[in-house]
Amino acid sequence: MRLLRLFVCWILVHVSAHGGTLTQAELARRFPAPLTVGEKAADVAAWPLFKQNGTRTELVGYAFESADLAPVPGFAGVPPNLLVVIDPKGTFLDVAVLSQHEPVFVEGLGEAPLREFLRQYRGRSLGQGITVGGPGQLDRVSKATASVRIINQSVLSAALKVALAKLGFVQGRDPGRIGRIRGDRFEPMSLAALLDAGLVRHVRVSNADVERLFAGSAGLDPARALDVALPVTRSKGIVYPERITREIAFGYRLPAAYYTAPDGGAPAWQASWKARRVQLVVLGVALALLGAALWQQRWLVAHARRFAWLRRAWLLFAVGFIGYAAQAQLSIVNITGIVRAPAWANRLVELEPFKPAITLNFVRAWPFVGYAVGLLLLATVVNKAFCRYLCPLGAALALLGRARLLDWIPRRAECGAPCRTCRHRCGYNAIAPGGAVDYEECFQCMECVVIHASDAQCAPRLLERKRGRSIPIAPASSSIDGRA
After folding, report:
1. Residues 6+ apart with CB under 8 A from 417
2. Which among 85, 189, 249, 329 counts the fewest CB atoms within 10 Å?
3. Is residue 8 scored above 70 in pLDDT?
4. Alpha-carbon distance 156 to 175, whole Å?
5. In this predicted model, what pLDDT tens digit does every residue of 198-247 receive, in sequence order?
6. pLDDT tens across 281-307, in order?
7. What is the DSSP string of 219-280?
């Protein structure tokens, strides 16, 4: 365990995050003729794609990496990096995986379901309010809903930044915080009625206004004011006329009856929390009850049999609900996700049997299933073998033992000499011969605390009870003198 802790410490120190990696040459290989890749834009990390159409060069769209523009961290702590291509109207042409470290897509389900998920973006417009799940929206990926929500957030946020900088869109917003056009509102109206309802605005532009323009964009969120621009073009010259375009800008706001306002400005990441609010409430209540039980430690350990049943019930809840039902088991990914160590997360997570046994229900290649089953068999011979010798998360958490403020496990002066009951029964070998607890090795099973509070198991308490039950015997001489 000490060597494993040192290894985890080394990982936590030697980590770094990565941004975009594509070059213009690599993009040219991905988008061959008749497409050409222009120079990377200076104001936003995107490459323009052009196509020769006769004598004209047309802009086909923009290609960019999501990690450059919207690095949304995934479960491994590092943002997925996706190659996104949108056309000048804000329609997705393609979304492809460049790199990703989501555990469920690295080994579990593989990348095939992820690639199938990304194909759904083709032909969809940024103005549609793309979300995961729901009628007409992106289909979820079973056992990977949270991961695809992260990916969707990254794709949309990056695309909105490019649309803002290059396509004349209004200021980009979190895609989960925009309004939605109401499809149930349809009513035939005359032009006068449209004007009265605020659906059409009359704008008059004089020739003098146009002259001033020559002398010298549509929004995505229907809940916000729109900036509308009317282009006016003039041709200068006769043989090869020069086309000069100016814009007449004005504002417009859609009446509130025709769209659904965003829900309280909540960011998109809260969607996954709301979808699992029942599970979160159950988990919160369970943790509150556990905290209350640990706070009342004397009551908890007063009866060894009651403690054993409560402990078994919690372990069953942890495996059944937290593990299989909620898919929320703790993993080394929770540590590497904080420090952004995706490469090591992919390796260390395979030391844990949770992915084949819980996340994928043993639907995986036979070496991984055999490894998980082998650990179960090993545990029948070596007590808590995985937790003590292989668990990378346990090694990382054991480091917290060095930062403790209190020694919260009760001890007696007799612990270690002469009594060594706790030491011999400790399944983790976390009690030294002298009776002190090695908190770096201790996993808080509380078995020694139960022994410490038991009149039937703790040797010092047994001796105290025997002394209390002893009957004092008066000297024989005193009795004889009393009769005399």
Report:
1. 434, 435
2. 249
3. no
4. 6
5. 888 787 877 677 667 656 544 556 677 767 777 888 777 666 667 788 88
6. 999 999 999 999 888 888 888 888 889
7. -S-TTS-EEEEEEEEEEE-SSSPEEEEEEEEEEE---GGGEEPPSTT--TTHHHHHHTHHHH
Identify the three-state secondary structure at position 216: coil
pLDDT digits (tens, 9 = 90+) for 322-350: 988 887 877 776 666 666 655 566 666 66
- Residues ≥6 apart with Cβ < 8 Å to 256: none
> Tokens 């803002």 label which residue?
164
| Torsion (CA) 432, 434, 436, 438 in degrees, nearest 10 | -20
CA dihedral 25, 31, 32, 38 (to 10 degrees): -60
DSSP 460-477: HHHHHHHHHHPPP---HH
Domain ranges of the chain: 2-181, 191-260, 404-469
Burial annotation 70-87 (CB, 10 A radius, 16+ → b, else e): bbbbbbbbbbbbbbbbbe
Q: Are 222 and 232 in contact (CB under 8 A)?
A: no
Cβ neighbours of 149 (radius 10 Å): 22
Amino acid at 179: G
- Asked if 209 and 237 count as a contact pair (C-beta separation under 8 A), the reply is no
Rounded CA gap, 293 and 284, in Å? 14
Give CA separation, 356 vs 107, 325, 362, in Å.
10, 15, 5
What amino acid is encoded at 213 in this protein? L
The backbone torsions φ and ψ at residue 49, rounded to the nearest 5 degrees and listed phi first, read: -110, 125
Give the C-alpha separation, 13 to 120, whole Å.
39
Task: Give the 3-state secondary structure of residue 382.
Answer: coil
